[in-house]
Structure formats: C-alpha cells, structure tokens
Specification:
This protein is an alpha/beta fold and 241 residues long. 46% of the residues lie in helices and 13% in strands.
Length: 241
C-alpha cells in the first residue's frame, strides 16, 4: 500500500499549482491519499510552522515540497524524522539567502528589496517572481501560464505572504540537517534562475539517503515543466526498496 503523500507548495502560490503532478501521482500510485494543504502562516519561525503542520500530516507520509515548501518539509523531517517515510524536494536549499559561509543563494540585498517592493506593490512583485520561476525553462510559456493561474490572492493572503518572505530571508536549516536521515529525492532544474543547483548538490553530499535528479532545460518549477517525467521518477523513488 502506498504511503500517504503530502504536497507543500512554494511562496506566492496556492495548493492548486500541484494539480498536474497530483493527478499523475494519483494515477501512477493508484492512491487518492495525495493531499496539498494551503500554506499561509502569519507569525512564528519556520520551525513553529513545521510544528503546526506536523499535526496535519499522517504518520509515514511522503512529503513533497517545493522551494519554501521544501524548507518546510526539511524542518518537519528534522523535528520528527520517524513521522516521515521519504522526502521529495524541488529546488531545495537550507538557506535561501547568501551568508558569509553560504554562497549558494540570493544576495541579502536582493531579498530585502524584494520584500520591501512586495509591501509597496504586491501584485506586480508576485508577477516578477513568477517570471523568474519560468526563466530559462524550455516550457516557459506553459509554466508561466500555470503559475499565473495559481497565484495566491494578495488582498486575502498579503500578511501571510509578507511573513513568508521574512522566513525566506531569516531561515537557515543547515544546523538541523545532521539530525535528518530520511531518504530523499532532490529534484532541481538546471536552468533555475532563483536557486542555484549547487544548493541541492550541497544537500545531497551532506545528507545520508539523498539522491539528485538534475533536469536540463528546466527552471524553478520542474513539476510544471515536465510533470509526466517527474511523476515517473517519484514513483520509482517511492517504490524503491
């Protein structure tokens, strides 16, 4: 019997962004236990958020996280490793922002300016973020269309989105990763304009049970660019002994 699967979406999007992958996983795994909760937190640290989500995740679940959702999945696995059977992480990083000892992220000035711009003009800022996610992807038009169709409403979730940006600026999970031994599939687009492939490679080298699937011609949203290929790779990973 296939373990329940929980999909954790990225910043600025709704859970419906997973639909192309979710439908394929349901079909391939012959399971309807594939859920995608809405991720909008107005307060607390990333670890606080992970603790709240843990109560909603069935024991033995496979966590599939993307970008901010991947950070949440890692934080959940670090907090309760026996609760999670496997991890599948898209565009993952332990730290979204560059630090003195972490070169594989965005400049702090860039992320701060992005957050400030969001407070001034949230709609335009999210649109720019969507464009970056599709940049360099061979399916750029289709990926952009899918992302735009699933943008979180800034008038409804503005406070949560602003808080999510603060968490991306502040969070650094490198110290928590040694406690995680969960088997993990790290999927990353080779053309990702937001998160360098080196971040995923760093995770794979330091995380026991980690394996990588680097996808050429793909940007930040691999599961939208190549959903059939991604679903097949996830099925293989879940069924591997």
């Amino acid at each position: 019997m296939t373990a329940p699967i929980v999909l954790l979406h990225g910043w600025g999007l709704t859970p419906e962004v997973w639909a192309p992958l979710q439908s394929r996983l349901v079909q391939r795994l012959d399971s309807d236990a594939v859920t995608a909760p809405a991720l909008f937190a107005n307060e607390g640290s990333l670890d606080d958020w992970a603790a709240r989500l843990l109560a909603e995740i069935p024991p033995g679940a496979v966590l599939i996280g993307w970008s901010l959702g991947a950070m949440l999945a890692m934080a959940i696995a670090a907090r309760a490793p026996r609760h999670v059977s496997r991890l599948v992480l898209f565009a993952a990083t332990p730290s979204f922002v560059k630090r003195d000892d972490w070169p594989h992220g965005l400049d702090a000035e860039t992320t701060t300016a992005f957050r400030q711009n969001f407070l001034k003009d949230p709609v335009r800022t999210v649109e720019r973020f969507i464009a970056l996610q599709a940049l360099g992807d061979v399916e750029r038009v289709a990926v952009s269309k899918a992302l735009r169709a699933n943008i979180a409403a800034t008038d409804t979730h503005g406070a949560a989105l602003a808080h999510g940006l603060r968490l991306l600026e502040q969070s650094d999970l490198r110290g928590a990763l040694p406690a995680v031994s969960t088997r993990c599939l790290l999927i990353h687009g080779e053309q990702d304009a937001l998160m360098p492939v080196a971040a995923t490679q760093w995770l794979a080298h330091r995380w026991s049970g980690g394996e990588t699937f680097i996808m050429p011609g793909v940007g930040h949203a691999a599961f939208l660019s190549q959903p059939a290929e991604v679903a097949a790779r996830i099925e293989q990973f879940i069924h591997a002994s």
